[in-house]
Task: inverse folding
């Protein structure tokens, strides 16, 4: 019986946030969601992908009814009314399901096109499902090809390139200016929310140390404690500027906090070692003319946002190339799925013809014994060639069928006409790493 | 045969260019392979010339230019293989092709006059060539530093931002290349001076011109002055980054001036 592959899901494009918040398979753990769906005995293989912007089920089943059951599961598992969910669900079948997953893995379907996390999320969705033995031949192949598509898009196009968030743009600039971040000293001015966010971000990058300066020493110390930094007095700012390689200014001050003269003095004291000044405050904390000082690299929020925008534009230009890669990999999967449907029938048919030929040769054995061994070999050869020729066109035609339903009809017809034995799945023993447990 | 290394260098430059444009790793490796093949051919050529002449082919400006191209290629290949950084390849191979044209057209090995049969001569020439190869690398590093610096300062992150290593790395490598070059230049000049003083009394007109008044010697001493200042300025007054990059580029301009126009047309002490 042919296997139906399909994907059912919702994402940021089809579903408003209120509903996405409620439909979250990850809340009780993916294992629970997988077990819940498996308990309904609707599908043979399944995997659940859950990110903040999407909830999707990939499944292989024996009949089309399974799609309906999975859709119901979306509503029932989360206690949402089925009509609410139905309106926002999309369903992809067969090769379209593969294409959809490949687009997701490549970051083409993401809120921020080309975002790098999604491939990892697809991987972990697969890992959880396969460790619990919910995946089999079809989903194993599907996800492996999805990883290939995702990696190819990453390495062969510029889709994942360039920072697409302000904080990442600042970090990538710091890398381009200094190279190694682990030897850098960071100074943060201001202890508000922005200062805290930036500090946490830089801390995660493994900078050597972070100093926080605020007009009120106590708030600086409080924040320093939270993010593993040290606090310094506002009066000691000159010294801190001399030590720092990166200065982040995020105070709520209504006027300029660092003047050109301040930075000029600092640059002299630091013998013109490069200084990267990130002014994320609005209104700006740093006199913009300080950016013309020889080794001062001054970026404000608008500059960083400009970089983010131009990177997003560049990613847009790479979409066509990424799409082509996804299509090529999806076509490979479609061909595999197709051959998987028809190959058992082809093999059974050939076996059938071959056994008839052998049976006939055996029956005529007593008439052939008078012939020389060469002549006997010739007879064997000729009969084999006849069988080959007879089967050549049907085999080619069968392999070329690109329509699921037609392939099933052909298989069915051949099985009946030649009373072929029920086929064993020749692809089940292919090299996939996961043991398969059929869900039904 | 003489033009063979040049052809390989040109092919390598094309591959490095394509690698720079499209960032395809395989094309980059092809560039490295072509450069290595060119250097191997060049080594073979220099070996043949050594056998043919019975001494290292270091006599005359053309031979020195050929040896310089060879050393620069080797030095760059070493840097590339140890740093795994290929983006500089395009600039270096362009330099190799530009400077390799004269030796490719005229590779007659000059016979060594009796005057030059001294180990001091070989040490002098080799030290100078090592120095110049280092300075050439420093200038490429400086040149690319300035390109990247301009992009970051102008906040238009583009071609160089995505391809070149960081300003920090370029600056450190530039500093090292200048320091190594300066050391060899100092050795070359001192050994040259000692050797010239040993020759005093020779009737050869070239020896008569071995003084600071000769443009070749004057410009070499000037470039020593310039690189000494670059080293001092980096350490003492914080001339790193763009200023150091510009200094090393200017310094190599002086070296090239000394190598080609002065070496071929103006010197009266070094025209062997």
Result:
């Amino acid at each position: 019986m042919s296997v139906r592959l399909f994907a059912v899901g919702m994402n940021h494009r089809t579903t408003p946030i209120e509903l996405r918040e409620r439909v979250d398979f990850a809340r009780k753990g993916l294992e629970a969601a997988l077990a819940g769906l498996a308990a309904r005995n609707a599908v043979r293989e399944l995997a659940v992908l859950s990110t903040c912007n999407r909830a999707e089920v990939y499944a292989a089943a024996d009949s089309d009814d399974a799609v309906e059951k999975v859709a119901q599961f979306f509503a029932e598992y989360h206690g949402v009314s089925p009509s609410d969910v139905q309106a926002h669900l999309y369903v992809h079948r067969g090769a379209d399901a593969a294409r959809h997953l490949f687009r997701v893995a490549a970051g083409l379907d993401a809120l921020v096109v080309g975002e790098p996390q999604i491939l990892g999320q697809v991987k972990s969705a697969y890992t959880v499902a396969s460790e619990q033995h919910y995946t089999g031949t079809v989903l194993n192949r599907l996800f492996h090809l999805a990883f290939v598509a995702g990696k190819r898009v990453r390495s062969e196009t510029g889709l994942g390139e360039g920072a697409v968030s302000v904080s990442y743009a600042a970090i990538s600039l710091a890398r381009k200016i200094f190279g190694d971040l682990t030897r850098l000293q960071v100074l943060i001015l201001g202890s508000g929310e922005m200062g805290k966010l930036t500090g946490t971000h830089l801390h995660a990058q493994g900078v050597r140390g972070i100093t926080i300066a605020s007009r009120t020493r106590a708030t600086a110390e409080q924040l320093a404690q939270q993010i593993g930094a040290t606090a310094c007095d506002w009066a000691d700012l000159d010294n801190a500027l001399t030590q720092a390689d990166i200065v982040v200014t995020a105070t709520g001050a209504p006027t300029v906090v660092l003047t050109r003269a301040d930075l000029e003095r600092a640059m002299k004291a630091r013998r013109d070692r490069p200084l990267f000044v990130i002014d994320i405050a609005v209104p700006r904390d740093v006199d913009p003319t300080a950016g013309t000082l020889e080794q001062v690299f001054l970026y404000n929020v608008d500059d960083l946002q400009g970089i983010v925008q131009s990177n997003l534009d560049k990613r847009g230009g790479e979409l066509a190339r990424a799409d082509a890669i996804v299509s090529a990999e999806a076509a490979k999967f479609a061909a595999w799925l197709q051959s998987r449907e028809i190959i058992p029938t082809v093999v059974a048919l050939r076996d059938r013809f071959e056994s008839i030929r052998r049976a006939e040769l055996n029956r005529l054995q007593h008439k052939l014994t008078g012939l020389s061994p060469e002549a006997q070999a010739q007879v064997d050869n000729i009969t084999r060639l006849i069988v080959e020729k007879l089967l050549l066109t049907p085999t080619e035609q069968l392999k070329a069928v690109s329509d699921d339903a037609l392939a099933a009809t052909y298989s069915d017809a051949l099985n009946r006409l030649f009373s072929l034995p029920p086929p064993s799945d020749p692809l089940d023993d292919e090299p996939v790493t996961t043991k398969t447990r059929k869900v039904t | 045969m003489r033009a063979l290394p040049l052809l390989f260098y040109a092919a390598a430059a094309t591959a490095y260019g394509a690698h720079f444009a499209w960032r395809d790793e395989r094309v980059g490796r092809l560039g490295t392979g072509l450069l290595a093949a060119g250097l191997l051919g060049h080594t073979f050529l220099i070996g043949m010339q050594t056998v043919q002449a019975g001494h290292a082919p270091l006599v005359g400006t053309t031979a020195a230019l050929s040896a310089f191209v060879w050393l620069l290629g080797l030095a760059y290949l070493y840097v590339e293989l140890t740093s795994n950084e290929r983006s500089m390849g395009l600039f270096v191979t362009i330099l190799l092709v530009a400077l390799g044209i004269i030796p490719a057209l005229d590779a007659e090995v000059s016979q060594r006059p009796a005057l030059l049969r001294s180990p001091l001569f070989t040490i002098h020439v080799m030290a100078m060539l090592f120095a110049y190869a280092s300075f050439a690398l420093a200038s490429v590093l400086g040149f690319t530093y300035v390109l990247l610096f301009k992009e970051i300062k102008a906040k238009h992150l583009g071609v160089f931002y995505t391809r070149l290593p960081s300003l920090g790395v370029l600056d450190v490598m530039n500093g090292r290349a200048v320091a190594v070059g300066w050391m060899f230049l100092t050795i070359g000049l001192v050994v040259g001076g000692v050797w010239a003083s040993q020759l005093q009394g020779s009737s050869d007109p070239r020896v008569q011109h071995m003084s600071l008044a000769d443009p070749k010697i004057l410009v070499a001493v000037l470039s020593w002055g310039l690189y000494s200042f670059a080293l001092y300025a980096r350490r003492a007054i914080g001339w790193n980054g763009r200023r150091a990059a510009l200094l090393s580029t200017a310094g190599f301009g002086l070296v090239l001036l000394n190598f080609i126009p002065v070496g071929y047309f103006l010197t009266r002490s070094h025209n062997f």
About this structure: The first helix of chain A runs from residue 17 to 22. DSSP finds 16 helices and ten strands in chain A.
